[in-house]
Amino acid sequence: MAGHRKTGALLVALLSLFLTNSRAQVRFGYSGGLAGEASADIDQELKLGSPDQREGLLKLLGVDGAIAHDAAAAVPNSNIHIEPIVGSEGRLLFFPCTGPGSPSSHLYLLRTTKEHRWHVVAGERFDCWWKPTSYELIKTEGKVDQSVLIHHVNRGHGSGIVEDHMLLFEVRGNLLANVLETKEYTSEDRMAEGPIVQHSSTLLPLPDGSIEETRITTTVGSSTKGGKSETAPVMQSHIALAERRRWRWSAGDKHYVDGSFAPVP
Q1: What is the distance between the terminal CA atoms of the chain, rounded to a whole angstrom?
Q2: 184 in Cβ contact with 167 (< 8 Å)
Q3: Structure-derived torsion over alpha carbons of residues 54, 57, 62, 68, reported in degrees to the nearest 10
Q4: What does the pLDDT look like over 113-141, one tens digit per residue?
Q5: Rounded to whole angstroms, how far apart are CA atoms 99 and 257?
Q6: Whole-prediction pTM value?
Q7: Pairing relation of β-strands 233-250 and 255-258?
Q8: Eight-state DSSP code of residue 265
């Protein structure tokens, strides 16, 4: 009887040890390195991998080590985007503003190598400040590939001043060609000299192959609510001007050329 009790206690102890070790070793997602092969779903690999696995995959793709480390550690994996570009055999790799001090976002073009792996063939870095840099894929009439429109690339900021641009890139073989750049948002705070003046622009591809830019100018100033009896200032915005202009493709220069702004009737 005593022998049965000892055997039972030993089995319980072994089972407890096994379960403890199993819980310690449980790891969700991928184990080991990530493939990075053209046949693999590397977008899912980035989402399911651990930070060091994501860093390793980004390095395998050809991303600089320091940039890969910051992106894998600081950026939520759902914000690292890899997606196909319609009309092209390449893929787009984008991760938003990362890094200490002066944050920046990064855009890469991926192609497959002879070993059937994805690899970076072109890359661009963008400064961030006022708003996070983002992107969208757009199709313009007469173009085979989708183009990549980058939003809120900071070109300058200072005391009361912000200037963000948007940039349009076309895929040309193993290159990302910048074919259009315009101011997306500017803000100038004149302080005691007058209201804050803001400009905001949007782009719209048109059926004739041109791109229409609409710019809205807004003034933001304070007023006294309720007349002279109340002194609490209230900020009010006012649309001062709406303008449009066309960007037309120049076959000789291989980029878009801007026209003149005209008021919207």
Answers
A1: 100
A2: no
A3: 10
A4: 888 889 999 999 999 887 889 999 999 98
A5: 35
A6: 0.80
A7: antiparallel
A8: -
